[in-house]
Amino acid sequence: MIRVAIANQKGGVGKTTTAINISTAFAASGWRTLLIDLDPQGNASTGIGCAANEREYSSYDLLVGEAGLAECAVATRIRNLDLVPATQDLSGAEVELVNVDHRTNRLRDALTRNAVAEGAYDICFIDCPPSLGLLTLNALTAADSLLVPLQCEFFALEGLSQLLQTVEQVQQRFNAELGIVGVALTMFDKRNRLTDQVSDDVRSCLGKLVFDTVIPRNVRLSEAPSHGLPALIYDQFCTGSRAYIELARELIGRLPERRIAA
User: What pLDDT score was predicted for residue 261?
Assistant: First the structure.
């Protein structure tokens, strides 16, 4: 199972929207897909149609070892897409795990312990909280790759260097295999000159690491979560949905080959 963490310590950059719609695009392409909601806000869970009262087990239970992956993963209305939802319990996980041995390895160990259940999926996306705390460190330690959504605004650039430094530290201390699969520019507004400037600056700095596809500002992307649906289901023909389909195609081209089960 390929594991991709979707992270950026800055909030409001389209991280959860990216997690939901990329997962949906992969599932629609035939990949057996798992989405783990590791954000205490639980927006990925509600945005994909998993109500709070439907969450018997959650990513909190997975982290603290009270339940396994097979128990925590629930089927969504989207074929080939399962979800490990988040609940409010997750907000206390960072405090509870502070004095636990190997606290940054909890998610990786949980997935390793569930090798049989893990074999049910081709790819796992992990939606991280908007911080570089213990939950995000668990995701980066468990992941093979990191996908970074980056809003096309000046302040978004300021946190990018900090995130890259964190990735380097994780590589040195916890997960030498972690690599950045790409940076996705989000909330792109071609009418705004600053958007073009930020895009040019990021591409000149990171080169081919930045995906060619950009995610535009789009009303339908904002509306979809209120209906408990990915934008790709809510309106597959809107510009935002088409952009995420193209981004998924690019991402597939950057991932290692995987074996599809019969």
Answer: 40
Query: What per-residue string of b and e applies to 98-107 under the rule 16 or more CB within 10 Å gives b?
Result: eeeeebbbbb
Q: Please, what is the Cα angle at 51 between 123 and 59, to 5 degrees?
A: 45
CA-to-CA distance for 48 and 96, rounded, in angstroms?
28
What's the CA gap between 72 and 64, in Å, rounded? 12
Q: Are 100 and 61 in contact (CB under 8 A)?
A: no
Residue 92: Cβ within 10 Å count:
12
223: Cβ–Cβ under 8 A, 6 or more apart, which residues?
234
- Residue 115 has a pLDDT of 59
The phi, psi pair for 124, rounded to 5°, reads -130, 125
According to the model, what pLDDT value does residue 138 have? 95
Name residues of the chain where pLDDT drops below 50: 259-262
pLDDT of residue 53: 72
E-strand stretches of the chain: 2-6, 33-37, 74-75, 81-84, 123-127, 145-151, 179-188, 210-216
List the domains of the chain with CATH numbers. 2-182 (3.40.50.300)
Q: What is the pLDDT of residues 8-41, one digit of tens each?
A: 988 888 999 999 999 999 999 999 999 999 999 9
Write the single-letter amino acid at 186.
T
Q: Return the pLDDT at 247.
A: 98
Report yes or no: 19 and 147 within 8 Å, Cβ to Cβ. no
As a whole number of angstroms, the distance between CA 168 and CA 232 comes to 34
Closest CA to 21 of 222, 192, 260: 222
pLDDT of residue 105: 92
Given this model, what pLDDT does residue 94 score? 82
